[in-house]
Design brief:
nine-stranded parallel beta sheet; elongated; 355 residues
Length: 355
């Protein structure tokens, strides 16, 4: 009996020892996991700080940063954590990838930015409508003064007296038979009565040769995307007090209808479509490399340019109903001011951030 009791007591001590050892292991494992989590948080915070610092450095310098063979632009220690930031650039888009490491734990934070500069400025329009493409499908049907190169105050139907220096339409290749498809009634240079006909007809002709080349369109797109104009969320449009940059991409259609008003810059990329209908109005610049259709009685104050350097682009313009395109230097000047945004140098606008 005594021997059995001793064996029992010894067994109990062994079991208790095992339980205590197991408990200590769990405690140790819990402490290690907590330590890992703490160092992961430190690494993440350091990566975020590195991303912010790198963006500030790019903003303060006119030139892009110097990178090493691994595209690393900057490396340092922040709050005890090692940080390195990678730099990638495509046009006006920049991707910064910041990696923080603390006691073996690492975290990566990636930010996509858009360069916003005060230097994104539009060129001089050569007509209410500028065509810079030799492969355009176009049809203009409507009443007189459909495309008017006379200078109009913003939102005003009548032009400024004596300010009719621009033609309704300017084209980059004079005599191209493809422009025979540009027909209808447009206001002539000098503010005379509208003339009907094709390129070169009328006295003076409604359509004048352009001095700019096709690269002019691409330059305006680049200037718009590099400007301080806020980007529209989806296919929304800006207003006169808050003009926006709206990009209509391949497969998308932007419809401005009814009595809706918009302002800013609309870029219709190849495969995209802009549809103005009803009594809608737009004040600003429309750049077309896709489709541009109208119906009803919409009015545009500002200008429209079509085409680009890419020879595969086949823009299509179809004006139905009684739309009015009125050149307005006031609208264009206001737009240029909005594009500068009052900013000096360049800024990094955060588009998205992810881990």
């Amino acid at each position: 009996m005594g021997r059995g009791l001793i064996i029992f007591i010894v067994g109990m001590f062994i079991v208790m020892g095992i339980m205590m050892f197991s408990s200590q292991n769990r405690l140790l494992s819990s402490e290690e996991e907590m330590a890992r989590q703490v160092h992961h948080i430190i690494a993440t915070n350091a990566a975020m700080s590195g991303l912010e610092f790198a963006a500030q450095q790019i903003t303060l310098n006119e030139d892009d940063p110097v990178v090493d063979e691994n595209n690393i632009m900057w490396a340092d220690v922040i709050e005890g954590a090692q940080v390195q930031v990678g730099f990638e650039k495509n046009g006006n888009e920049i991707r910064l990838r910041s990696r923080g490491t603390s006691e073996g734990m690492s975290a990566t934070v990636t930010g996509d930015f858009r360069i916003q500069t005060s230097g994104g400025e539009l060129g001089f329009l050569e007509g209410a409508l500028g065509v810079y493409s030799d492969d355009i499908g176009s049809r203009f049907d409507g009443r007189p003064h459909l495309i008017n190169g006379c200078d109009h105050p913003a939102g005003v139907s009548s032009p400024i007296p004596g300010n009719c220096d621009l033609p309704g339409i300017a084209v980059d290749i004079v005599g191209n038979s493809n422009y025979d498809r540009i027909r209808g009634q447009v206001t002539r240079r000098g503010g005379g009565p509208p003339s009907r006909g094709v390129l070169g007809k009328g006295s003076p002709p409604s359509i004048y040769p352009a001095e700019n080349t096709r690269s002019f369109v691409d330059e305006q797109i680049e200037a718009a995307k590099a400007s301080a104009l806020p980007r529209a969320s989806g296919l929304e449009i800006g207003s006169r007090g808050n003009p926006m940059l709206t990009v209509v991409r391949d497969g998308e259609e932007l419809r401005i209808a009814g009595s809706e008003d918009g302002a800013g810059i609309i870029i219709v990329e190849e495969g995209g479509k802009l549809n103005l209908r009803g009594n809608s109005t737009f004040q600003g610049l429309i750049i077309v490399q896709g489709g541009f259709h109208t119906a009803g009685t919409p009015t545009i104050w500002g200008g429209v340019i079509v085409g680009g350097e890419n020879l595969e682009i086949q823009p299509e313009i179809r004006f139905s109903g009684t739309p009015k395109l009125k050149y307005s230097s006031e609208v264009m000047d206001d737009l240029k001011t909005a594009m500068k945004g009052g900013a000096a140098g360049r800024r990094m606008v955060l588009e998205q951030i992810f881990q």
